[in-house]
Amino acid sequence: MQNEVRTLLADIEQAILEIKLFVPSPTNFFKFKKDLLLTLFVLSATFAYAQETTTFILVRHAEKANDGTRNPALTEEGEARAKTLLEMFANADITAIYATNFKRTQTTVAPLAKNKGLEIKTYEWKNPKGLLNKILEANTGGTVVISGHSNTTPVLANLLIGKNSFTNFEENDYGNLFIITTSKVGGGRLLHIRY
After folding, report:
1. Which of 97, 86, 177, 77 has its CA nearest to residue 143?
2. Tens digit of pLDDT for each residue in 84-112?
3. Dihedral angle computed from the Cα positions of residues 77, 78, 84 and 90, in that order, rounded to the nearest 10 degrees
């Protein structure tokens, strides 16, 4: 895209030089050239920054059972929250859904994945920034849902927006939902809601 813009700008600059031959008044030409160059600058800036925007929807898993295991299922309240998530995004064009390899994160997004006909992609929590770059590259221009945990979802949000705005969620806080639009990790715009 940028090479096409450069070629277009070079062609326009050549056209300006050719137009100069036909403009009788130097004063009019310089005003015309200034206006044209300003317009071209605005257009080139628009092309240079018109990258595909990806939308990230980040959620913590829904309410989990207190069954004494490391991998509990959702409670009835958690299953209801998973259905609410489905209802919120039933009409959205979701292109990918990610979750850690735990029942609670998988089950939180399972109704949405089923509705969209998508397989839940499992991710590892070793390199969060690398993970986001990889997801962004694979889903440019799409809408991605990531189901995480009380200590991972805030980290992903902070990385996407480029600020340390969020800390770990309280253990009993399951209602945070981040919608972040971005074309690069660290440059996102955030909408933080409760559901």
Report:
1. 97
2. 999 999 999 999 999 999 999 999 999 99
3. -150
Beta-strand pair 176-182/189-194: antiparallel
d(CA 90, CA 154): 24
Polymer length of the chain: 195
pTM value?
Answer: 0.75
Q: What whole-number distance in Å separates Cα of residue 52 and Cα of residue 21?
A: 40
Whole-angstrom CA distances from 132 to 12, 67, 75, 76, 148 are: 39, 32, 29, 31, 13
Spatial contact of 184 and 137, defined as CB atoms under 8 Å apart: no
Cα–Cα distance, 162 to 148 (Å, whole number): 19
Cα–Cα dist 41/22, whole Å: 24
Q: Residue 187 corresponds to which tokens in the numbers above?
A: 């440059």
Distance CA 100, CA 61 (A): 10
Check if the beta carbon of residue 189 is closer than 8 Å to that of residue 180: yes
Phi, psi (degrees; rounded to nearest 5) at 2? -65, -35
The token duo for 117 is 């006909």
Cα dist from 184 to 14, 135, 142, whole Å = 34, 11, 13
